[in-house]
Amino acid sequence: MIDSIVLGGGCFWCIEAYFQQVPGIINVLSGYTGGLSANPTYREVTGGETGHVEVIKATFDDKIISLVEIFEIFFEMIDPTTLNKQGNDVGTQYRSAIFVNNDTQRKTAEKIIDSIKENYNDPIVTEVEDLDVFYEAENYHQNYYNDNKAAPYCRLVISPKMEKLQKILKKD
């Protein structure tokens, strides 16, 4: 079955880049959700005043990758114990969150969080929320890493994380 999940864990450029590499992920879109206004812009969201989160919407084939596996990769690639922060990205727009489409996704997310919490010294602060509306980010944010690998942020922040992801994918 084809399904989708919306994930927030810092800058959407990073998370988009990770999940574009994962077998079974059909499509990844960068966007925004969880905020107060309709159709927010990047400038508004990064200003931190709208309440939105930078997220990705990952469409996947559950015959190839399960939701559990997606969550496992997600939690390997982020720090679920930092409130409103991932690396140098600070603000509520960078909070760690899973936006679910249904009760099955919610229960799966909560079960994963419960199963990994003992691996951390600090409490997991990743939110699990119902998805209300997903707003697709502006075109220049889509496929950002692949289109801008020479940009300083991509070289210094995303590329090292992509190496980590490759090690995680090889374990499976």
Walkthrough of the structure:
With 172 residues, the chain is an alpha+beta fold. It has a single domain, classed as Peptide methionine sulphoxide reductase MsrA (Peptide Methionine Sulfoxide Reductase, Chain A, 2-Layer Sandwich), CATH 3.30.1060.10. Helix content is 37%, strand content 23%. The strands form 2 sheets. Strands 7-6-1-3-2-8 form a 6-stranded mixed sheet, with helices on one face. The chain has a two-stranded antiparallel sheet with strand order 4-5. The longest helix has 20 residues, at 152-171. The model has no long low-confidence stretch (mean pLDDT 94).
How many beta strands in the DSSP annotation? Answer: 8
**Biggest pleated sheet:** 6 strands, mixed
Let me know the CATH homologous superfamily.
Peptide methionine sulphoxide reductase MsrA
What is the name of the CATH topology? Peptide Methionine Sulfoxide Reductase, Chain A
| Spatial strand arrangement across the major sheet | 7-6-1-3-2-8
- Classify the helix fraction into a percent range: 25-40%
* CATH-defined architecture: 2-Layer Sandwich
What is the N-to-C succession of helices and strands? EHEHEHEEEHEEHH
Low-confidence stretches: none
If helices are DSSP runs of H or I spanning 4 or more residues, what is the number of helices? 6
Based on CA atoms alone, the radius of gyration comes out at: 15 Å
Mean pLDDT: 94
Just give the CATH class: Alpha Beta
